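Feature request disguised as a bug report, sorry. It would help if multi-protein outputs had a clear separator. Right now it looks like this:
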Amino acid sequence: MNLDRFYPIFDHSDWLRRMLPLGVKLVQLRIKDQADAVVREQIAVSRDLCRAHGAVLVVNDHWQVAIDAGCDWIHLGQEDLDDADLKAIRRAGLKLGVSTHDDDELERVLAMSPDYVALGPVYPTILKKMKWKQQGLPRVTEWKARVGEVPLVGIGGMSVERVPGVLQAGADIVSVVTDITLNADPEARVRAWIEVTT
């Protein structure tokens, strides 16, 4: 499976409207704490934007809405796995990406035959409080050896400057949030990301 190596995460379709024309080919829509109607609208709009630009949309968490909207990918965190109907997700033909942070989580996820495995946080992250300390690059190398052919996504504290080291350590894909969304010139930063991951 050929997924793009640059994997930004955004919380609104407006970001996709701005960034997809720059050449983003893999993107996650992560919507938190919004009414169901807003979630459904955002996923539908993002689905259409990605199809128009030939990009892969990964919907975070909202697996039932993703199924209803005819999306192709879902990303689940460990807590999401407890409530998600994996059989329904697979029946609908959705591909599955899952977050992992430790050995037990990785073993649990590999038993599900995921379509990618995310490891994080590779570096300290300001996005959300986590009980896990930074994983570091040696852990990326170890995880890649364990997941084999399954694409490995490095996430957490990522920046343009850190990308080469993360890819060299074994990650197939590098995911990013705040290095773009908090940048004074997000478009320029996305262009830099595309350049360093191409």
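(second protein starts here, but nothing in the output says so)
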Amino acid sequence: MRRIAVLVLLAGVLAAGCKRKHHPNPSATIEEESELASSISVAEPRDASQLLSGFYNLEQNAWRWSMKKFAVTLAPPLNGALRGATLELHCSLPDVIAAKMLGVSVTPIVGATRLASVRIDKAGDQVLKFDVPIEPLKQDAIIVQFELDKAIGPDAADSRELGLVVSRIGFVSK
């Protein structure tokens, strides 16, 4: 009996530390259950359903180009509704487009709350950080939209509108 109680307690502790939240999918059968993570990799197949719009196909099994506007859905971070959070966008401004894109401003909208913009002034890998207040983190599923103030338009070399190279998006608890 004592062994069972310890196992149940251990299972509860492990489940509480999990970054994924289970959310019912209305179209899922009883055997299926969708999970919503508070932090996603755009290369991870299980996270692909959280990419809502503005992303192109996966490249080099690691990243995706974004459009000028792109969106994801995320679960709130642990204690986000009590303390707020930091939103992180792991991205890159490749040298091949840096000349046209340096100075681009990135503005996230979390739920209905527009956050302060961050300007990218150098080429290469970046981790953009945005302070998120408590209010938009009170939902089970949060739509996070990003808007760039400029992008590279389609041309003869590439028919896509190119924004940033994105690898990861997520909330970090405060």
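Even a blank line would do. Unrelated, but nice: Helices lie at 2-16, 80-83, 95-101.
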